[in-house]
Design brief:
Helix content: under 10%
Number of helices: 1
Radius of gyration: 33 Å
Shape: elongated
Distance between the termini: 88 Å
Number of strands: 30
């Protein structure tokens, strides 16, 4: 009879069964929303009629209701997913009510004694009945081994799918097992080197794969799908409630990239087959662009017609394009853009990061990377008058300063202009960006200052 020895740890030994060969020809499609489609084609030798086949090395988080199996002349009668994995603690839990053998070794003489014991409970410790006495199996360092007569049928060394098949004829044939599983996801990461003097950026795009399914997928043909699938409630880092309004300069593109699409999603196949190991994060390059156009801009947004006691830093913004001409030339999956610049010694230094959503090709992109050290703005309420029972007039002065040795342009935005707010006077023509915001594009001289004034007619 096969026995399994439990000492400090447990060597995993598979129980005999009708398990088929491990993973076959694998194709894995990974979505942004913690979801993957696995298609596993294995060569099976099936008997005629009904038989039970076991498929080890499926995902430990498989969604059993999504399983399909396709093969010529074969139908599924029943399927079971066994995810209770073999371990020392599980083996002891399954032995409750059963008898095991305890093998004790005398440390002084090396003599061994065996006793049969019935496992009564496994709750914070193992309670045993040995003859007429009750004993607790303590972890006190004494040499004691628990010997089990067998491996319980419902324990598996690996996640296993058991399928009862009805085959019209005997013989070998390819069988494709398909299923959906959470626990696998991907995101895009972009590393950007900005050369301000040349007005150029170099961008390296990386796919970051993460596998927490409990299973390694060997030599898989891997396809990534960029887009949000309807009906999925997975974690979405780009949709978490309130987000600050984007800086000016963002405009969705209208160009079609030269890559395959699936419905309204874009596909990003990995060029070579790859092994997606369990509990692994893997990075694969998918974009490599040098010399695309890029520029630095400054943005300051005032939330309402109010005064700041002291000047506040403007946001630093990197502007570039995903267009075919002078841009990155591709649709960009949602991800994090990290920006570097070279210092005077030629070393690339990190200067900030931000996120982008799924971005069509041909888009103008503006991301905030940090706050400017030398460019500041102070909004001040100069006068506030009540014109009638429900109308007020507020005169604002915006003082902009620049400590840099070059002139800068600041996009000065006044937001909070909801309702029937009107600008009745301004020192510089503004651009009404939306019902809530208006913007002035202000040039501030090198080592100098600039001022903008405006009077608003409001209900409150």
């Amino acid at each position: 009879m096969r026995r399994l020895f439990l000492i400090a740890g447990l060597a995993a030994i598979s129980a005999p069964g009708l398990a088929q060969p491990d993973q076959g020809n694998l194709a894995v499609t990974i979505y942004n929303q913690n979801l993957a489609l696995v298609q596993d084609t294995r060569q099976l030798n099936l008997p005629a009629g009904r038989s039970r086949q076991e498929f080890p090395n499926v995902s430990g988080q498989i969604s059993p209701e999504t399983v399909t199996l396709s093969a010529q002349g074969v139908g599924i009668v029943e399927q079971n997913f066994d995810f209770d994995l073999l371990s020392p603690s599980k083996l002891m839990e399954k032995a409750v009510g059963e008898e095991i053998t305890l093998l004790r070794t005398n440390p002084a003489t090396g003599a061994e004694t065996r006793e049969r014991a019935k496992v009564l409970a496994v709750n914070g410790g193992v309670v045993l009945q040995i003859g007429n006495r009750i004993e607790v199996l303590r972890d006190d360092g004494l040499p004691v081994r628990a010997i089990f007569d067998r491996v319980p049928e419902n324990l598996r060394a690996r996640p296993t799918l058991s399928v009862t098949l009805e085959s019209a004829a005997a013989g070998a044939r390819p069988v494709t097992l398909s299923y959906l599983t959470p626990g696998m996801s991907w995101k895009a990461d972009y590393v950007t080197l900005f050369d301000e003097g040349a007005g150029k950026i170099d961008v390296q795009g990386w796919v970051t794969l993460t596998n927490t399914t409990g299973t390694t997928f060997e030599n898989a043909d891997t396809l990534l799908v960029a887009g949000d699938i309807g009906g999925r409630n997975g974690y979405d880092p780009y949709n978490r409630g309130y987000r600050p309004p984007p800086p000016p300069g963002n405009r969705p593109g209208t160009e079609t990239p030269g890559r395959e699409s699936l419905g309204d999603f874009y596909l990003y196949p990995l060029k070579e087959r790859t092994t997606i190991a369990n509990q692994q994060t893997k990075q694969v390059s998918f974009l490599d662009v040098t010399g695309a156009a890029g520029r630095r801009a400054y943005v300051f947004r005032n939330g309402w017609l109010g005064t700041l006691d002291q000047a506040s830093s403007a946001d630093t913004v990197l502007q570039f394009s995903s267009s075919r001409d002078q841009g990155l030339g591709d649709a960009l999956p949602a991800g994090t853009v990290r920006v570097y610049m070279k210092d005077s010694r030629g070393n690339a230094q990190f200067i900030g990061e931000n996120q982008i959503g799924h971005t069509p090709m041909g888009s103008d992109i503006a991301i905030t990377t940090g706050q400017a050290f030398d460019v500041k703005v102070q909004p001040v309420v100069e006068k506030r008058e009540r014109m009638s029972n429900d109308r007020w007039r507020t005169t604002m002065r915006y003082k902009l300063s620049n400590a840099r040795p070059q002139p800068v342009t600041v996009d000065l935005i006044q937001s909070g202009l909801w309702g029937d707010v009107r600008i009745v006077d301004e020192s510089k023509k503004s651009d009404r960006r939306s019902a809530d915001e208006t913007m002035w594009r202000v040039t501030v001289p090198a080592n100098g200052e600039a001022t903008v004034t405006a009077t608003f007619d409001t209900r409150y």
